[in-house]
């Protein structure tokens, strides 16, 4: 039965799906096949609750015993309630969206059974028949022979030793207690968890603008409501059509469902952005912004991209090994006819406006931003080149495309999507200065107001873009440099100076090319004039080992219009010819002035990868909430957390017995006694413990950002715990309790 079931699924997936590696749809199809086999199995072979469900279907006239002459589709329609009972159970067991699975079942799976000649009246499909059909499909597609999974082929088995490794922390488990080895999530389970979490976030959202949004619309000089609704409806038809073309015509409704989730997220994030702007600027009239077509298109595209990535395989795989599909970014840009540079402007504000985004989604959007900065924004037709040209005209010189993009300036800014889409403007420095309500309309935004002065204004979007490009460029260069030239530290500032000079002054070399191509050529050029033996073969070999790289980057480089060749040919025919004079200066007695190394903050998007230790605590760690989640109770709660110790506190859940509190109290007391002793020895009193911080949006001190004005319930609860702990410590100190207990490590 297992062999029959598996091959039937492989055959269905191969014939129904155009994008076969769509993990979520594949799993939904797997449930449909399982539903089909359960219905055809004798009730005695099944366990509850499937046994009683199959018995009920049999009593009402199962598809296993149809009356002759009765049309199958009409039987299916009449038995809709009973036929989907097993599907409902399967969806509940596996946290799947019932409506989506029903859609797959009736629009794709039933037609597949008919086209494959698999009739329920004949019982289970014959293995020989479906094996023959799968053989034909396998030869045609030349994909992996998935039948090998049935044979437990060793090349397809997971590394059991790697999977059984515990997440280790300094606090070891009690040797007297059992160690429960928790295996990592499968990609399917990770995807299902991400989808369920997204759906829960959007449960309270609507398909239409909320009352709060309507108030913002009504406050506008020109009410944008009609144009927003019209735009959303128009893209609904476009997205549905493009999705069906990519995945298959039978999946158009699935595409529509995903788009509607994106629309809910679009309205939710828009409302959050406007509330933040109102607080920042003390204004309520956002007519200019809310009537900007590019802003809305970008925001909607970003929301839909989050939904698509959540459903896609890359939602559960954050590394660069996951293969791209037809629906992967930048597919969404083509659907919405959107320039990459315009899409980039909304990413950071989107992440900050939606604190419920999962870590995987934040990393995905950050990776989208990196791809835009490294290549997509530099494609021909991008508004980026016009902005650089206008910036040169504004300064009246050709060697400074954007003075505010100096590499050594700390990366801190308070710019939002409103500033970027309505740029060039001078960013507001006071709350009363207000956005873009009377600002000059830029070339990269929807024109609405005639410029007041002939001199182009400073582009906030260009300045911030260059800052981010410099940060990304130096990170890449530094990583590659450590791989190749760690014994020549004096060369790094020279290579960076040439690299930065090229990006700033010879930016046309980036047109239709990749940031890493300029980086590799800069490294090779400096080593050449400094007589350091470094060949391109060594550079590309090290480059292939870096994260998020592609061999096409050095194998296929634009030489001239529609002509491509290797990175070596590009260096000789293009890069060296353009920068020969500049490169030779590094070998002279008067080399160019070195560019300052960029100030590198931590990404404002990243979460901590490991538990944080409580300052002065005795082996006490706090870890951010991690997946997987349990959704059966209608709310999110962690079923597994790290560190894997025996004393875990999860805010919002039952903590357990009072003994755990006593253990934590004792541990805190011990650590405080250590502080007291150190205070007696030293002249000054110990510094008070800092409030615990998590790596959530807006808490990184390095980039000058601040906390959000509204703290989450989790943060408030954590503050209460910290306050309680401090009072307990003071009480113990007053009592003169100098005892300490040793904690097993």
Automatic annotation (TrEMBL):
<dbReference type="GO" id="GO:0035189">
    <property type="term" value="C:Rb-E2F complex"/>
</dbReference>
<feature type="compositionally biased region" description="Polar residues">
    <location>
        <begin position="398"/>
        <end position="413"/>
    </location>
</feature>
<dbReference type="InterPro" id="IPR015030">
    <property type="entry name" value="RB_C"/>
</dbReference>
<keyword id="KW-0238">DNA-binding</keyword>
<dbReference type="GO" id="GO:0006325">
    <property type="term" value="P:chromatin organization"/>
</dbReference>
<comment type="similarity">
    <text>Belongs to the retinoblastoma protein (RB) family.</text>
</comment>
<feature type="domain" description="Cyclin-like">
    <location>
        <begin position="475"/>
        <end position="576"/>
    </location>
</feature>
<keyword id="KW-0131">Cell cycle</keyword>
<protein>
    <recommendedName>
        <fullName>Retinoblastoma-associated protein</fullName>
    </recommendedName>
</protein>
<keyword id="KW-0963">Cytoplasm</keyword>
<dbReference type="GO" id="GO:0000785">
    <property type="term" value="C:chromatin"/>
</dbReference>
<dbReference type="Pfam" id="PF08934">
    <property type="entry name" value="Rb_C"/>
</dbReference>
<keyword id="KW-0597">Phosphoprotein</keyword>
<dbReference type="InterPro" id="IPR028309">
    <property type="entry name" value="RB_fam"/>
</dbReference>
<dbReference type="InterPro" id="IPR013763">
    <property type="entry name" value="Cyclin-like_dom"/>
</dbReference>
<feature type="region of interest" description="Disordered">
    <location>
        <begin position="58"/>
        <end position="78"/>
    </location>
</feature>
<feature type="region of interest" description="Disordered">
    <location>
        <begin position="698"/>
        <end position="745"/>
    </location>
</feature>
<dbReference type="InterPro" id="IPR002720">
    <property type="entry name" value="RB_A"/>
</dbReference>
<feature type="region of interest" description="Disordered">
    <location>
        <begin position="392"/>
        <end position="413"/>
    </location>
</feature>
<feature type="compositionally biased region" description="Polar residues">
    <location>
        <begin position="734"/>
        <end position="745"/>
    </location>
</feature>
<dbReference type="Pfam" id="PF01858">
    <property type="entry name" value="RB_A"/>
</dbReference>
<dbReference type="InterPro" id="IPR002719">
    <property type="entry name" value="RB_B"/>
</dbReference>
<keyword id="KW-0805">Transcription regulation</keyword>
<feature type="region of interest" description="Disordered">
    <location>
        <begin position="426"/>
        <end position="459"/>
    </location>
</feature>
<keyword id="KW-0678">Repressor</keyword>
<keyword id="KW-0156">Chromatin regulator</keyword>
<dbReference type="GO" id="GO:2000134">
    <property type="term" value="P:negative regulation of G1/S transition of mitotic cell cycle"/>
</dbReference>
<dbReference type="GO" id="GO:0005737">
    <property type="term" value="C:cytoplasm"/>
</dbReference>
<dbReference type="Pfam" id="PF01857">
    <property type="entry name" value="RB_B"/>
</dbReference>
<dbReference type="GO" id="GO:0006357">
    <property type="term" value="P:regulation of transcription by RNA polymerase II"/>
</dbReference>
<keyword id="KW-0804">Transcription</keyword>
<feature type="domain" description="Retinoblastoma-associated protein A-box">
    <location>
        <begin position="186"/>
        <end position="388"/>
    </location>
</feature>
<dbReference type="GO" id="GO:0048667">
    <property type="term" value="P:cell morphogenesis involved in neuron differentiation"/>
</dbReference>
<dbReference type="GO" id="GO:0031175">
    <property type="term" value="P:neuron projection development"/>
</dbReference>
<feature type="domain" description="Retinoblastoma-associated protein C-terminal">
    <location>
        <begin position="583"/>
        <end position="744"/>
    </location>
</feature>
<feature type="compositionally biased region" description="Polar residues">
    <location>
        <begin position="438"/>
        <end position="459"/>
    </location>
</feature>
<keyword id="KW-0539">Nucleus</keyword>
<dbReference type="InterPro" id="IPR036915">
    <property type="entry name" value="Cyclin-like_sf"/>
</dbReference>
<dbReference type="GO" id="GO:0000977">
    <property type="term" value="F:RNA polymerase II transcription regulatory region sequence-specific DNA binding"/>
</dbReference>
């Amino acid at each position: 039965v297992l062999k029959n079931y598996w091959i039937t699924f492989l055959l269905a997936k191969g014939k129904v799906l155009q994008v076969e590696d769509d993990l979520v749809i594949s799993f939904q199809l797997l449930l449909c096949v399982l539903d089909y086999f359960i219905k055809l199995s004798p009730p005695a072979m099944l366990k509850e609750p499937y046994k009683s469900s199959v018995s009920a279907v049999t009593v009402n006239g199962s598809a296993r015993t149809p009356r002759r002459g009765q049309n199958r589709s009409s039987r299916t329609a009449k038995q809709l309630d009973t036929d989907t009972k097993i599907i409902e159970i399967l969806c509940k067991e596996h946290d799947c969206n019932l409506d989506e699975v029903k859609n797959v079942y009736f629009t794709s799976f039933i037609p597949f059974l008919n086209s494959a000649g698999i009739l329920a009246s004949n019982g289970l499909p014959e293995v020989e028949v479906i094996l023959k059909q799968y053989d034909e499909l396998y030869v045609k597609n030349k994909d992996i022979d998935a039948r090998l999974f049935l044979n437990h082929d060793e090349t397809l088995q997971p590394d059991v030793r790697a999977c059984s490794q515990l997440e280790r922390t300094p606090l070891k488990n009690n040797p007297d207690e059992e160690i429960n080895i928790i295996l990592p999530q499968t990609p399917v389970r990770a995807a299902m968890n991400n989808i369920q979490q997204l759906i829960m976030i959007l449960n309270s959202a609507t398909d239409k603008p909320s009352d709060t949004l309507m108030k913002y619309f009504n406050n506008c000089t020109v009410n944008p409501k009609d144009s927003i609704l019209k735009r959303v409806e128009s893209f609904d038809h476009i997205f549905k059509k493009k999705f069906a073309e990519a995945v298959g015509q039978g999946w158009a409704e699935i595409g529509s469902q995903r788009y509607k989730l994106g629309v809910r997220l679009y309205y939710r994030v828009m409302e959050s952005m406007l509330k933040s702007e109102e607080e920042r600027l003390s204004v309520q009239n956002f007519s200019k912004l809310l009537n900007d077509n590019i802003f809305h298109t970008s925001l909607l595209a970003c929301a839909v991209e989050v939904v698509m990535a959540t459903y896609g395989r890359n939602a559960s795989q954050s590394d660069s090994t996951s293969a791209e599909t037809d629906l992967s970014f930048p597919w969404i840009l083509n659907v919405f006819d959107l320039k990459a540079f315009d899409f980039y402007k909304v990413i950071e504000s989107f992440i900050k406006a939606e604190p419920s985004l999962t870590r995987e989604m934040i990393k995905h959007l950050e990776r989208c931003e990196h791809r835009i900065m490294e290549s997509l924004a530099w494609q021909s037709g991008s508004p980026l080149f016009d902005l650089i040209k206008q910036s040169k005209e504004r300064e009246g010189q050709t060697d400074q495309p954007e003075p505010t993009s100096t590499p050594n300036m700390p990366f801190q800014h308070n710019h939002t999507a409103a500033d970027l889409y309505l740029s060039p403007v001078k960013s507001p420095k006071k709350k009363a200065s207000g956005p873009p309500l009377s600002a000059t309309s830029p070339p990269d935004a929807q024109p609405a107001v005639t410029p007041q002065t002939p001199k182009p204004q400073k582009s906030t979007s260009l300045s911030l873009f260059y800052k981010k490009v410099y940060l990304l460029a130096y990170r890449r260069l530094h990583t590659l440099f450590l791989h190749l030239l760690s014994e020549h530290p004096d060369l790094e500032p020279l290579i960076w100076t040439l690299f930065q000079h090229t990006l700033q002054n010879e930016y046309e070399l980036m047109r239709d090319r990749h940031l890493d191509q300029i980086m590799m050529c800069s490294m090779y050029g400096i080593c050449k004039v400094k007589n350091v033996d470094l060949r391109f073969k060594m550079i590309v070999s090290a480059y292939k080992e870096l994260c998020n790289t592609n061999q096409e980057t050095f194998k296929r480089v634009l030489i001239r219009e529609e002509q491509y060749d290797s990175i070596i040919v590009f260096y000789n025919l293009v890069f060296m010819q353009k920068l020969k004079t500049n490169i030779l200066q590094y070998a002279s007695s008067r080399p160019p002035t070195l560019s300052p190394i960029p100030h590198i903050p931590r990404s404002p998007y990243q979460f901590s990868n490991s538990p944080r230790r409580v300052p002065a605590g005795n082996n006490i760690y706090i870890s951010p909430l991690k997946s997987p989640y349990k959704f059966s109770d209608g709310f999110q709660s962690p079923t597994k957390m790290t560190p894997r110790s025996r004393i875990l506190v999860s805010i919002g859940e039952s903590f357990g017995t009072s003994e755990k509190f006593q253990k934590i109290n004792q541990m805190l007391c011990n650590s405080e006694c250590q502080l007291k002793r150190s205070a007696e020895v030293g002249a000054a009193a110990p510094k008070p413990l800092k409030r615990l911080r998590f790596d959530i949006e807006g808490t990184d001190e390095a980039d000058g950002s601040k906390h959000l004005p509204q703290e989450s319930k989790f943060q408030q609860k954590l503050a209460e715990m910290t306050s309680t702990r401090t009072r307990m410590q003071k009480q113990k100190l007053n009592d003169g309790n100098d005892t300490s207990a040793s904690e097993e490590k």
